[in-house]
Amino acid sequence: MSSYLIRGVRVLGREWTDLLLRDGVVAETGPGLDPSGAQVIEADGLVALPGLVDLHTHLREPGREDAETVETGSRAAALGGYTAVCAMANTSPVADTAGVVEQVWRLGREAGLVDVQPIGAVTVGLAGERLAELGAMAASAAAVRIFSDDGFCVADPRLMRRALEYVKAFDGIIAQHAEEPRLTEGAQMHEGEVSTRLGLTGWPAVAEEAIIARDVLLAEHVGSRVHVCHLSTAGSVDIVRQAKARGVRVTAEVTPHHLLLTDELAASYDPVFKVNPPLRTAADVTALRAALAEGVIDIVATDHAPHAVEDKECEWAYARPGMVGLETALSVVLSTGALHRDGEPDWDLIAERMSRAPARIAGLAAHGHDPAPGAPANLTLVDPAARRVVDPGELASRSRNTPYAGTELPGRIVATFLHGRPTVLDGKAVK
Ligand SMILES: NC(=O)N[C@@H](CC(=O)O)C(=O)O
């Protein structure tokens, strides 16, 4: 295996150093390392971060390979600075058996662009009626430990309780898509002033908050772990804050789009802004940014949700919810300033919320390590000074449903290394 010398990089934005990657690990660090035998990468002006980890990615394979495949989604992830992604279970067939999660896991290994960790469904067919084979998925080669019916809520409280109890045996997690279905029937966007003005049926904040409140109580009652997917309201932040203060084992994620965009965008009737949960108000955005900085929200997760053109470029009411996000996540987070300190990106905090904490929650032992001697060489190099205008045609994802088309965003991923091998160099995918 070849070795790489990354010359003059600022690890987490700190002092300049060289990094020698060899045999899949960071072999040496320090200024002026001997480059002989290594491929040299000049990293003047670049910041090294532990490879980003996404706890919430839709890869669409099996079943909707026209929208994304494990390979195209993995490439998009690598270009976004990711070295590991957790693949959601709402595929076709649903990832509710050991066979399907092993298939996704194997496809991830074959693509070899990021580590793909499958998430298993909580209920058979995501139907919310009976538990899937959680133990068999956990014991499979894919070693599943996060289970989610994402796309749907595990709405039945008794089933949710049983799922939480079941995964406790192997320290698993139930990741909940918090949406009380009776409160969101026919919903098209956030319920509020804008939905009233547009005459669209609303998805009220309380539909999310009621489920989170219930689930933190259930997790507390059975002593198990619950993770809140794509938390989107100020009220949800308050509930999670209180639960954490009581010692409940709850973690939460926020998406880049909920940190930047608001429900006012629905007034365009452009379905690219239709997403689940819906874009909320400016006050929610402010609360989410503060909660992420504070740590009440543990991580940023993309909820990368690729959709084929016919599912997205149609009337608002018929469009599928979801946005692609892997290739823009870090830039969007940088643009919000949510993880800045004194007007500059706080790279240590960014590493925590986008790499270390998601790796810890998902139990991905090879990820989330700062580049230091002996650490697995899973890392990404960012040019913080670069700016780029998002061009949907240039995305590696098979789908184009980005809400940032034509938007100028800060920061650029220059290189990504997975187990010591480059997956991205000079901002381009290596394979
Ligand atoms: N987040 C989304 O808007 N879409 C998700 C599923 C979902 O949560 O509805 C998808 O799979 O497309």
Helices and strands, with pairings:
Blueprint: E1 3-11, E2 16-22, E3 25-30, E4 38-42, E5 47-50, E6 52-57, H1 70-79, E7 82-87, H2 98-111, E8 115-118, H3 134-139, E9 146-147, H4 157-168, E10 173-176, E11 189-190, H5 193-198, E12 202-203, H6 205-222, E13 225-228, H7 234-245, E14 250-254, H8 256-260, H9 282-294, E15 299-300, H10 309-312, H11 329-336, E16 340-341, E17 344-345, H12 347-362, E18 379-389, E19 408-418, E20 421-425, E21 428-429
Parallel strand pairs: 1-4, 1-5, 6-7, 7-8, 9-10, 10-13, 11-12, 13-14, 14-15
Antiparallel strand pairs: 1-2, 2-3, 5-18, 16-17, 18-19, 19-20, 20-21
Bound molecules: N-carbamoyl-L-aspartate.
N-carbamoyl-L-aspartate (NCD) binds next to loops.
What does this structure look like?
With 431 residues, the protein is α/β, with parallel strands linked by helices. The chain folds into two domains: 3-47 and 375-429, Urease, subunit C, domain 1; 51-359, TIM Barrel, CATH 3.20.20. It is built from twelve helices and 21 strands. It has helices at residues 70-79, 98-111, 134-139, 157-168, 193-198, 205-222, 234-245, 256-260, 282-294, 309-312, 329-336, 347-362; strands spanning 3-11, 16-22, 25-30, 38-42, 47-50, 52-57, 82-87, 115-118, 146-147, 173-176, 189-190, 202-203, 225-228, 250-254, 299-300, 340-341, 344-345, 379-389, 408-418, 421-425, 428-429. The strands form five sheets. Strands 1, 2, 3, 4, 5, 18, 19, 20 and 21 form a nine-stranded mixed β-sheet that branches. Helix 4 (157-168) crosses helix 6 and helix 6 packs parallel to helix 7. The longest helix has 18 residues, at 205-222. It is globular and about 65 Å long. It binds N-carbamoyl-L-aspartate. Residues 58, 90, 150-151, 177, 275-276, 303, 305, 320-322 line the site of N-carbamoyl-L-aspartate. N-carbamoyl-L-aspartate binds at residues 58, 90, 150-151, 177, 275-276, 303, 305, 320-322.
